[in-house]
Specification:
Elements: H1 3-7, E1 13-14, E2 39-40, E3 47-54, E4 69-73, E5 76-77, E6 82-87, H2 105-109, E7 112-117, H3 124-141, E8 147-152, E9 155-156, E10 161-162, H4 165-173, H5 182-187, H6 198-205, H7 209-222, H8 224-230, H9 233-269, E11 276-282, H10 291-303, E12 306-312, H11 325-328, H12 343-352, E13 356-357, H13 363-373, E14 376-382, E15 393-400, E16 406-409, E17 412-414, E18 421-422
Parallel strand pairs: 7-8, 7-11, 11-12, 12-13
Antiparallel strand pairs: 1-10, 2-18, 3-14, 3-16, 4-5, 4-15, 6-14, 8-9, 15-17
Helix pairs in contact: 3-4, 3-13, 6-9, 7-8, 7-9, 9-10, 10-12
Length: 430
């Protein structure tokens, strides 16, 4: 396509998240009704694994052949049937080293980004930082052929993916702060009687009487006047229990909503061939009792060919001596020790071959790091020895056969049959 034709083009949209059913979060039907994209047949028995290979200096290693890597499923070595390099570099060619692919090189080299704004787990300043960075990234780094989507305010913007940068920017700008977010819930912990952090709240909610006694006695020792105002130690301990139970109940609901949103995005992307990149904008969220569910979401995403990355919207925030100073200080700065909220995005990223970006104020730069990582990679395709798609989790391990190399890839996948793939053959028509 010539430059002139690109300049006057109307970007094509892919309706992948709209259907006759309502959005599982918003309860609304998609606003746009567009013709369904053409369907093509593809084998879903073949499992594909995206692999990034680094040398000792952390640089991507080109020029590998199938014999340079070994692939295992549930501990058993598998025969690599497809092996090829995908690169976004327009000057490079995508040449399979082995076997054939179900999609064209153009489809494989096309980058697909979905930015998920987790408003319930973004404080106001974090949300503004994330919006500014996402807009700058779209302006500077989304190019011709790239496809994007924005999950915002509990739904996929216009129910679709698009190549239209103006639509993507409008989607980012439409994000609104949640009425309640994790930080507003944690703020109550700083009020008398103080709860040091989320872990303490969980232990109290689960009936750890020793935690209630210790915190109640400390509160009354530090501020005997407020202790007396509340009615004495027994009433202070009752207040601690009420605060903890309220927080855990609300935090569970917020986490359930975030998980539901991610499942919806993964389901929509499962119909697109090739690698997809999901970027979760979040400060982290309550993970207790949800670890198994998050691992299932990661396994579903891995099967769908989606890599999940996460960006901490708090950016370069100050350090403190407390392990969870989001709770204990009004400034909501974070320490360098353990932050329980980070567990959740780390489960998602590690399970799908992505990574988490922390302590970067410039969110556009953080997105650029992710774009670079997801723009050049190897694809390994194999037919599992166990060909039955029985819904179980299958562990994947990729090992280098060459000294000095390291590999990052998804940890496994959920053995389910994929829906028919959707694509516009021959590239996007404008």
């Amino acid at each position: 396509m010539t430059r002139a034709r690109v300049g006057c083009a109307v970007a094509v949209s892919l309706i992948l998240f709209g259907s006759t059913r309502s959005d599982p979060v918003s309860g609304q039907n998609p606003a746009s009704q567009a013709p369904q994209a053409p369907m093509f047949r593809a084998t879903t028995a073949l499992v594909e694994v995206d692999v990034v290979v680094f040398d000792r200096d952390g640089r991507f290693v080109p020029g590998l052949v199938p014999e340079d890597l070994a692939l295992y499923e549930d501990g058993r070595r598998q025969t690599i049937q497809n092996f090829y390099l995908v690169t976004h570099d327009p000057s490079a060619r995508l040449n399979p080293e082995l076997g054939t692919t179900a999609t064209t090189p153009a489809e494989r080299a096309r980058r697909v980004f979905v930015i998920v704004f987790d408003e319930g787990h973004l404080a106001f300043d974090s949300l503004m930082r994330a919006k500014h960075g996402a807009e700058a990234f779209i302006q500077a780094q989304i190019g011709p052929g790239d496809v994007g989507g924005v999950f915002v305010n509990g739904q996929m913007y216009r129910g679709r993916l698009t190549t239209d940068k103006n639509e993507l920017i409008a989607a980012v700008r439409s994000s609104r702060p949640a009425f309640e977010n994790r930080q507003s819930l944690l703020a109550a912990f700083r009020e008398f009687p103080r709860i040091p952090g989320e872990i303490d709240a969980v232990r109290i909610e689960q009936g750890a009487r020793e935690v209630v006694d210790a915190l109640g006695e400390e509160a009354c020792r530090r501020d005997p006047f407020l202790c007396q105002q509340e009615g004495g130690l027994d009433q202070v301990e009752n207040l601690l229990q009420r605060k903890a139970k309220l927080y855990v109940r609300q935090a569970r609901a917020m986490t359930a909503r975030t998980v539901q949103n991610l499942q919806y995005v993964v389901s929509g992307l499962s119909r697109i061939p090739g690698r997809k990149t999901i970027v979760l904008m979040s400060e982290g969220f309550f993970v207790e009792e949800s670890r198994d569910t998050l691992e299932v979401v990661a396994a579903q995403a891995a099967r769908a060919g989606a890599a999940i990355y996460s960006i901490d919207g708090r950016g370069l925030i100050s350090s403190g001596s407390n392990a969870d100073p989001d709770v204990s200080t009004a400034a909501m700065s974070r320490g360098t020790l353990f932050d329980p909220g980070e567990d959740a995005p780390m489960i998602l990223t590690r399970g799908t071959g992505g990574f988490m970006v922390r302590r970067i104020d410039d969110i556009s730069r953080a997105l650029g790091l992710i774009a670079r990582d997801t723009s050049t990679y190897y694809v390994l395709g194999y037919a599992p020895d166990n060909a039955t798609m029985d819904g179980t989790f299958r562990k994947i391990e990729v090992k280098p056969n060459v000294d000095g190399l390291s590999v990052r890839a998804r940890k496994g996948y959920l053995a389910v049959t994929l829906p028919p793939l959707e694509a516009i053959r021959g590239g996007f028509k404008h």
